[in-house]
Write a structure and sequence with these properties.
heterodimer; A: mainly beta; Immunoglobulin-like; 2 domains; four-stranded antiparallel sheet; 1 helix; B: alpha+beta; seven-stranded mixed sheet; signal (chain A); membrane (chain B); transmembrane (chain B)
Chain lengths: 242, 298
C-alpha cells in the first residue's frame, strides 16, 4: 500500500511538473475572412512529415492570377513547404562580462547563436556595435581591433599577438563566413556611430533547423589604457530570405 | 509493518526527489531568462491587393527568452545577393500600412499577435512594396557595472506586397544563365546553374522543371523580385537542393531542357543546352590496365 502511495505521489509530481512547465501553444494566421490553426513548431524539429493542412492556398480568389470580388490574393509562408514554421533567433546571453582587464593579456568570452529557418528558404544574421567599447563619459575608448596585420568589419585576420590591442570577434559553427578560417581569425564589429554598415556573421540559402554558431569576443589592452569601465551594445539582426 | 526509520528514509527520498524536480525547472527558467530567444510567424507574407481594398494579417511573435520590451517597425528592404537575402533600409512603410508602433512588453514564454492592416488608397501606383516587419528588443539594464558588451536583437518577417487594379500585373522573365559543363565524365553528375531575372513590375515564382531523358528536376518556386535576378535552386519533396542530376552513367550527347512559366501564366519559357558525357575515367582505367598488362607480358 505504501509503495502504491509512493508511486502515486511521484507520478502526480511528474504530471504537475510537466503541466506547469511545458509550453503547448497554438500558432495561427488570421485575416477577416480566414483563420488557420496549426501546431506550435518552435522546437525546430524541421519540416513536419504530417501535413494535414496546406497553407500555400491562396485566399480571396477563384482563378489563379485574377482577383475575385474579394480584391486580394494572400499567401502566408513558403509555397514549396506546406506548413508554416516560425523563423527563430536566439542568443545565449543578454550581456557578456569581461571582468577586470589585464594589459597584454587577451580576455575572451563567447555566446551561442541558434537560428531555425525551417519555413524559410534561407536567412542571414548581421551584427554591429553602437560604438567601440567606451567609458560611460565617452572620454576613453578601447579601439576596434586591427588584428596582427589588418582586419575589418568584413574581413577577418589573424590576431594572436599580445601586443596588438583592441576589441574583436571570431565566429565558428554553422553558416559562418569563410574568412573565419580558424579560432585565431578575428574581425571588428561594424560601428554604426561611424556609419559603417552591419555585416553578415551567419547566412545560408538553404532551409535549416537549429543552425548553431559561437561568437567569441576578444579584448586586449595596453599598459597605458586608462582605467575605467568600458561598455558597448552589440545589435544582432536576423531576417529570413524571401 | 515499517519501522519509523524506514518511514523517515522514504520521506527523505521523496523530499530530495521533489526538490530536484522543482529546482531543475527554476534553473531552466532562470537560464532562459538570461537569453534572447524570439520567433516570428509567418516568416513570409505575400499579398496582391486592389487599391481601396483592405486586408488584415496577424504575425505572431513568441518570446522564449527573458522578459523584453519589443519595439515594432515596418521598413522597406532591398535584395542583396541574388540568393533571397535582404538588407533593411531606413525607409518606413507607407502610411496606409497601419500598425501599432507603440513598444509592448512581452514576457518570457509568451506570444503576441501583431496586427497589420493593408489599406492602399485608390490612387496608389501599381508597384510592389518590399517590406520587412521588424521586432527589436530593448537594451537590457546593465546590472554588472563592469567591462562588458550588451546585446539587443532584431528579428523580422518579409512582406511582398503587390498593388494591382486587375490582379494581372505585368510579369516578364529572362533566362540570364542556364548552363552545365560542355564535357563531363560519365561517372559524375551534371550540375546546372540557373539564373532568372524579373524584368516586369511585380514579383513572381517560376513554375517549371529541367528535363533530361526520363529524369526531371523540379525548379523551386522561389520569389524573384522585379528588376532583380535570382540564382535558382531545385526542390525535392519540400527540400531545396542544387539542380543536379541523380542519374550518373550517361554516355554521349545529353540534351537538357529547361521549361517554366511565370506563376500560372500560359507563356512557357524554354531553353536547351547540350552536354557531352564521356567515360573518361573508365577509358583511363582501361588504358592503364592495358599498359600494366603489356608491361607484365614483357
Amino acid at each position: 500500500m505504501k509503495k502504491f502511495l509512493l508511486s502515486f505521489f511521484l507520478l502526480s509530481l511528474f504530471t504537475i511538473h510537466y503541466s506547469l512547465f511545458t509550453v503547448s501553444a497554438q500558432e495561427r494566421i488570421e485575416s477577416p475572412n480566414y483563420r488557420i490553426q496549426f501546431p506550435n513548431l518552435n522546437s525546430g524539429a524541421g519540416i513536419p512529415t504530417s501535413s494535414g493542412y496546406k497553407l500555400d492556398s491562396t485566399v480571396g480568389q477563384t482563378v489563379a492570377g485574377k482577383f475575385s470580388s474579394a480584391g486580394y490574393i494572400a499567401r502566408a509562408g513558403f509555397q514549396y513547404i506546406h506548413s508554416i514554421i516560425p523563423f527563430s533567433f536566439s542568443i545565449s546571453d543578454i550581456q557578456k562580462n569581461f571582468g577586470t582587464l589585464t594589459p597584454n593579456t587577451p580576455s575572451t568570452n563567447s555566446s551561442t547563436i541558434i537560428i531555425s529557418a525551417g519555413g524559410a528558404g534561407g536567412y542571414s544574421v548581421k551584427a554591429s556595435e553602437n560604438n567601440p567599447l567606451k567609458t560611460s563619459d565617452g572620454g576613453d575608448t578601447i579601439i576596434d581591433t586591427l588584428c596582427d596585420t589588418t582586419c575589418s568589419e568584413t574581413t577577418a585576420g589573424v590576431w594572436t599577438s599580445s601586443t596588438k590591442y583592441g576589441f574583436g570577434f571570431n565566429m565558428s559553427g554553422n553558416d559562418v563566413p569563410t574568412d573565419f578560417t580558424n579560432s585565431t581569425y578575428y574581425r571588428q564589429f561594424a560601428d554604426r556611430n561611424s556609419a559603417e554598415v552591419e555585416s553578415t556573421i551567419m547566412s545560408s540559402v538553404n532551409v535549416g533547423s537549429s543552425r548553431t554558431a559561437t561568437i567569441t569576443y576578444q579584448i586586449n589592452i595596453s599598459a597605458v589604457q586608462p582605467a575605467g569601465t568600458y561598455r558597448n551594445v552589440i545589435k544582432f539582426t536576423a531576417i529570413p530570405s524571401y | 509493518m515499517k519501522t519509523t526509520k524506514q518511514i523517515k528514509n522514504n520521506t527523505f527520498w521523496i523530499i530530495l526527489f521533489s526538490f530536484f524536480i522543482l529546482n531543475s525547472s527554476f534553473l531552466i527558467d532562470k537560464a532562459m531568462a538570461q537569453a534572447i530567444s524570439l520567433s516570428v510567424s509567418p516568416p513570409l507574407f505575400e499579398l496582391m491587393i486592389q487599391p481601396n481594398k483592405q486586408v488584415k494579417q496577424i504575425f505572431t511573435i513568441t518570446n522564449l527568452g527573458g522578459d523584453s520590451i519589443i519595439t515594432p517597425s515596418l521598413v522597406y528592404f532591398e535584395s542583396t545577393d541574388g540568393t533571397g537575402n535582404v538588407n533593411l533600409t531606413e525607409n518606413q512603410a507607407p502610411d496606409w500600412v497601419i500598425y501599432n508602433k507603440t513598444p509592448f512588453n512581452l514576457k518570457g514564454q509568451e506570444k503576441f499577435d501583431f496586427e497589420i492592416l493593408f489599406s492602399p488608397p485608390s490612387d496608389d501606383p501599381e508597384i510592389d512594396h518590399l517590406l520587412t516587419l521588424v521586432f527589436e528588443t530593448n537594451e537590457p539594464v546593465d546590472l554588472l557595472g563592469q567591462n562588458s558588451t550588451t546585446y539587443t536583437s532584431k528579428i523580422g518577417a518579409n512582406i511582398l506586397l503587390t498593388i494591382s487594379k486587375d490582379g494581372s500585373p505585368e510579369k516578364k522573365a529572362e533566362i540570364i544563365e542556364f548552363s552545365a559543363p560542355k564535357i563531363i565524365d560519365s561517372l559524375y553528375p551534371i550540375r546546372y546553374t540557373l539564373k532568372l531575372a524579373n524584368n516586369g513590375n511585380s514579383f513572381w515564382k517560376p513554375n517549371g522543371k529541367i528535363i533530361v531523358n526520363k529524369e526531371i528536376l523540379n525548379l523551386a518556386p522561389q520569389n524573384i523580385l522585379s528588376n532583380s535576378l535570382r540564382k535558382m535552386k531545385c526542390i525535392d519533396n519540400e527540400i531545396l537542393i542544387n539542380c543536379e542530376l541523380k542519374t550518373r552513367f550517361y554516355v554521349g550527347k545529353i540534351v537538357s531542357k529547361l521549361e517554366f512559366t511565370i506563376d500560372e501564366e500560359p507563356k512557357v519559357y524554354k531553353l536547351e543546352i547540350t552536354t557531352y558525357s564521356l567515360p573518361l575515367t573508365l577509358v583511363g582505367v582501361v588504358v592503364l590496365l592495358i599498359l600494366v598488362w603489356r608491361k607484365l607480358k614483357r
